[in-house]
Write a structure and sequence with these properties.
Structural class: mainly beta
Length: 736
């Protein structure tokens, strides 16, 4: 059963041994910096000291008025992750959708990804942004905020993940080159990342880039039983699909900072991403009973490419009496094109139809924002600011069936415009040695306009979000503290969910495969949130914490599938505000070195977290009437062992999401199989400038199974099984 994996492992170990021998000799001959380089030792030492304090994630987390988890460069470098999703899945309360070893939507507190706000440098991530396209090497740090603050958007019912791209060049983070090769199911993938920077007088620059070539297969099998929508007869069928794809991801992120004078700094940064892929697929349907299937075999070919360019500008100026002004500005431009062809064949081999689906999406916009802050005495500071964003999205889509338009009366072009405006004020103060508090208020307004062949629609919404955070340091113990937060957040409808233009199902229109359409009358979901936490910090940066949270959601948005006789007698899925929901849970975390709690302990770093979630949707009867796709539990466990006699570090981690059932409507259920993932790594450090890493991801390579059930009219139940694969990676890291 494990023969193929054993062969891959053996090959990887042999290659590792050979590379170790070669690099060992090379590392010994690598010249060390000459002593003359220390002529400016004093200023360098001062800079290292200051940045060392700032880079202590534990101190930053401890002193923040609102709960914030910081993942800095040290931790990003520690595990050698190839994608951001691999970094995030280890964090408490963060899960990744999809099967084991496959990237998916990023979620906090078990909720679906729409409840989690994703930011890049504090700005909302562009539509279609993929974590698989971004290398961890391009990131300075990741900030995970469980409750909103006024400075950032309150579109974060579950929380906010802010990805901060590489900042100014620092002497403690020298330039580096990383080369990696991976193997998965007999397919090779390559990756190259470069970070290079320097300080020249008042000018600091940092240039980063990465290239990733990938090749993957995605197969699945399943079964389906239900009622044929055309004849009313029951059927039983088995399905299978095979697909393979390849492509590349490219990212480039230069940054330039100019210190005009002390207290006056201008920074410019751009971020370019380019993705291209192609795929081939084959799917089959075998009817075991009932009327003939709509088709017996389908062949598909597809190509897609996308380009995204974002620019960030920042001007920071110190003013009189300790005041500061921070002004941000930026732009974004993106384009994606896809072309797909699908041919369907009947059981006798004759071609039934050929479908062509071409789409082109262009989006452009700009944003600006700023914050003015000023201390009010030694123990209080206040700030106020604004955010403004405007974007235009144009989508051109052509769907042909046997050369004729599929929906001639709906048109094939949609234009959407979104304008966002926000203003905020916040105040932070210390009430003696035990108490610190934060109060903020944010107003956000959104206007969405869309035009297509069916007409034009518009939607306006605005939300006031008060926010209160407090930290209580327990007397007599500087290592223990309590947190409390009371906040109001919201989830705005997706722009696509406001557009009335329908998107027809690719296969036979049915309850399980309906058309999709928008609803211009949607309103934002609003939520009051309460967060409580206990935190204990150790002297060497470790911590243990326990947190509780609750969210009371109004105006919950869910998609409902109904048979619409007025719409040519088709099944249509539309989003609607359906009522109220409640979500609550507990999150436990421990992250420490064993030496912090045990005498004569081995050099082991321990990280563990466990989360338990509950939710209830009021207009759906129980049991299992949970929020869409909310996982009930999350568990992570990891160990890292550093050998004393040799420059070797070994590590392993377990990620577990138990199976669960989600009742999505009165007569609809979805069952999701448990997801278990085990990862390991070994790192050999030849010198401070050279190290080699061997990693194995998804060692259990379990099949991932999902099931769905629908009763009543158009009843159907289906089952899908997707295999997963172990990935072996070898990475060489050079610093210069």
């Amino acid at each position: 059963m494990y023969t193929a994996q054993s062969q891959h492992a053996s090959f990887a170990l042999q290659l590792t041994a050979l590379t170790l021998a070669c690099l060992g000799a090379w590392a010994e001959e690598t010249p060390r910096p000459p002593a003359a380089a220390n002529t400016q030792a004093a200023p360098v030492a001062e800079e290292i000291k200051v940045t060392g304090k700032a880079a202590n994630e534990g101190d930053i987390r401890r002193n923040q008025p609102a709960s914030k988890i910081i993942v800095g460069r040290d931790e990003l470098d520690k595990y050698g992750d190839s994608t951001v999703a691999e970094v995030l899945k280890r964090l408490p309360g963060v899960s990744v959708g999809g099967g084991p070893g496959r990237g998916g939507g990023i979620r906090m507190r078990g909720m679906s990804e729409g409840y989690t706000q994703i930011l890049i440098n504090g700005e909302p991530a562009a539509r279609g942004f993929s974590f698989d396209s971004l290398s961890p090497d391009a990131i300075e740090r990741i900030e995970v905020m469980r409750a909103p603050t006024a400075e950032h958007s309150a579109r974060a019912i579950a929380g906010t993940i802010n990805i901060v791209l590489r900042e100014d060049y620092k002497a403690k983070q020298p330039s580096q080159l990383r080369m990696a090769v991976s193997e998965e199911d007999g397919r090779l993938q390559g990756r190259l990342d470069v970070q290079w920077g320097a300080q020249v007088d008042a000018l600091n620059y940092n240039i980063g880039g990465g290239y990733n070539r990938n090749s993957r297969s995605n197969d699945s099998s399943g079964s389906r039983q239900g009622t044929d929508s055309r004849t009313g007869l029951t059927y039983d069928e088995v399905t299978a699909s095979q697909s393979s794809g390849s492509g590349y991801h490219l990212n480039f992120s230069p940054r330039l900072t100019w210190r005009v004078e002390p207290g006056n700094t201008v920074s410019l940064q751009t971020f370019l991403m380019r993705n291209q892929s192609s795929s081939d697929g084959l799917s089959t349907i075998t009817r075991l009973s009932g009327p003939a299937a709509d088709y017996a075999r389908a062949e598909s070919q597809g190509e897609s490419e996308s380009t995204m360019l974002r620019g960030f500008g920042n001007w920071k100026r110190n003013l009189s009496e300790g005041a500061k002004l921070d002004v941000r500005f930026g732009f974004n431009s993106s384009r994606s094109d896809s072309e797909n062809q699908r041919q369907e064949f009947l059981a006798d081999g004759s071609r039934k139809e050929i479908r062509l689906d071409d789409s082109e999406i262009q989006e452009a916009g700009f944003s600006t924002g700023g914050k003015w802050s000023r201390p009010l005495g030694e123990d209080q500071s206040m700030a106020m600011g604004w955010d403004l964003e405007q974007s235009r999205r144009e989508e051109h889509r052509v769907k042909l069936v046997n050369g004729l338009p599929e929906v001639a009366d709906a048109g094939d072009q949609v234009v959407a415009r979104v304008r966002k405006l926000a203003a905020f004020a916040q105040d932070e103060w210390n009430l003696g040695p035990q108490w610190s508090a934060y109060a903020g208020l944010r107003w956000e307004g959104i206007r969405t306009e869309s035009e297509d062949a069916l007409g034009s629609t518009s939607s306006n919404s605005s939300v006031w979000s008060p926010m209160l955070h407090a930290v209580y340091r327990i007397p007599g113990s500087s290592k223990n503290q309590l947190r409390a937060s009371l906040t109001r957040s919201y989830k705005a409808p997706n722009t696509r969910d406001l557009i009335t233009r329908p998107v027809l199902s690719d296969e036979e229109n049915s309850r399980s495969d309906p058309d999709r359409a928008g609803n211009p009358n949607l309103k934002p979901e609003l939520a009051w949130g309460l967060d409580l936490a206990y935190e204990h910090y150790f002297s060497q940066g470790g911590l243990v914490s326990a947190s509780l949270f609750s969210r009371q959601i109004e105006g919950l948005i869910r998609r409902e599938t109904q048979f619409e006789a007025a719409n040519n007698g088709r099944w249509v899925s539309r989003p609607r505000n359906v009522g109220e929901a409640t979500s609550y849970g507990i999150e436990l975390e421990a992250k420490l070195r064993l030496a912090e709690i045990m005498d004569d302990a081995p050099p082991i770093d321990l990280r563990a977290n466990y989360s338990r979630y509950w939710s209830r949707v009021d207009n759906i009867p129980g049991p299992d009437n949970r929020l869409d796709e909310q996982v009930p539990q999350l568990f992570n466990l990891g160990l890292d062992y550093r050998f004393k006699a040799m420059p070797l570090t070994l590590g392993a981690s377990l990620n577990l999401v138990p199976a669960y059932t989600n009742r999505t409507d009165v007569d609809e259920w979805r069952d999701v199989d448990a997801k278990r993932q085990v990862d390991i790594y070994a790192q050999w450090r030849f010198s401070p400038a050279v190290q080699l890493r061997l990693a194995g991801n998804n060692l259990l390579h379990q099949d991932y199974e999902t099931r769905s059930r629908q009763t009543g009219t158009g009843a159907v139940q289906s089952r899908s099984i997707t295999p997963s694969y172990t990935q072996w990676t070898m990475m060489l890291e050079l610093k210069f």
